[in-house]
Amino acid sequence: MGLGMLLAAGAACAAEDPVYGGTVRWREINDPPKLDPAMATDTVSSRNLYLMYDMLVENDPDGQGLLPRLAESWEGSEGGTVFTFHLRKGVHFQKESLGEPTKNGGREVVASDWKYSFERLVKVTSPRAYFIDMVKGYQDFVDGKTDEWTGIKVVDDHTLQFELEYPFAPFVAVLAYNSFMVVPREDAEHWGKDFNFHPVGTGPFILEEWNHDQNLVYRRNPDYWRTDAEGRELPYLDGVEIVIIPDNTVAYEEFKKGNIDCFPDFPDEYYRAAKEEFGSQLQERPWLGTYYYGFNNQKEPFKDNKKLRQALNYAVNREMINDLVIEGRYYPGKGVLPPGMFAYNEDLEGYSFNPEKARKLMAEAGYPDGFSCRLNVNNNPRHKAVAEAIQGQLMQLGIELDIHVLDWGVHLDLAERGETEMFRMGWVVDYADPDNFLYVLLSSENWGPKGNYSFYKNEEVDALLKEARVETDQQKRKELYQKAEQIIVDDAPWIFLFHYTTSLLVQDWVENVHLPAMGDYATPLYNVWTARQ
After folding, report:
1. Alpha-carbon torsion (197, 225, 105, 110), positive or negative
2. How far apart are CA 191 and CA 202, in angstroms?
3. DSSP state letters, 95-124
4. Could you say which DSSP state residue 514 is in?
5. What are the tens digits of pLDDT across the range 462-496?
6. Do 287 and 521 meet the contact criterion of CB atoms below 8 Å apart?
């Protein structure tokens, strides 16, 4: 399957007028770990955040740049260090959450709300605040030397300005990430840490019920700001229900019975059957993301043992696993950056399947007869199936993988705290720049919750990635990123496995569902309608 090719039609646009009413039921495997945008770092949480909140800008559904959201327009200064955003008027915070009136009372969003929301990221120690650490005054505010983030200025109620310490090419694109959503001060400060359980935003749907590990029920926000091309109010739906079903078999049966409307990240074991039975209702497209097994580079047996880490990379047959376990749906990977990403290197020297070389490296690493190791994976059946295939391949070399399947929230927490030996992890693009992969995941400045779950450190890589952040010449940036990636691959802090596709199976009575380039979790639902009421 080649890049840019959709296995099925990407959009399902009906000719008929939209229908108001009804509820769409969306399947998830896990409860969302976080509903506070400041604290969320995963796609399950993001699916829910996009129903309730808004950013200044958003990604084009087909990855063709940025679109206005709560900023109607913006401009950058000559030199690229000042960005001015002109805010949409008439946008209001939600009046209710979980059946209770909110503290903000449904007032209009103004520029000071954005300044508050950005400063709150630092105050609550958001794991993603550092994505915009180039905004002037960030470090002084983090260190408590100032009472405000001086690089964020309220020009007037509907004009917001950012001043950067240095030009940073992907700055506006970063603001499309879901940490940078606006929240009302009144509710955020009233609830404190419990704002996570009392979320309030400006989005198309209001949280009405959260029955943990069962479902999240959302109802239509009657004051939502968007209208369709004909000027009709959005959303069309009365509500959305996120249904938690961990088991793929149960979920697929529920879909076939019509009890689930949207089935994201469609499972491999029913892939062929679904294509035959549901045809164009299964959407699938390449996704800028990387699937890997991280080693804990600060713990034995992998600490200071590059040869052992390289041996495991040579011991895995990616092509065979992709063909036999994943139905050929992914792309075997050589490195960190996915195909299609700026600075992707076709000539990167990665690891091919070579068991003899793996044995030789293991002997040189001090493990000629193999060793035992714990591997953590989260409870998506696909991850367990891949882990068992890799377990079988490594066993041929005397390596015993002890697979532990964990709930997603527990799995993520252990990885962030470094309480792992080996762990499965994936990373999908937050903003379309190599910085989002290489700096976030592999700079030693970002150990733990910031993204470097393998606790990898190489001072030369750190220096190259820092230099690339401030370099304005795109060709030089490309060279810096490619040099850094080759060093990382040689160091083997991970087993580099696959690059993703994203998929979504939708009932034929649900209209206007378009699987976006950013992944199934970002599928817009504000303009979807259902013919089944």
Report:
1. positive
2. 17
3. SEETTEE-TTTTPBP-HHHHHHHHHHHHHT
4. B
5. 999 999 988 888 899 999 999 999 999 999 999 99
6. no
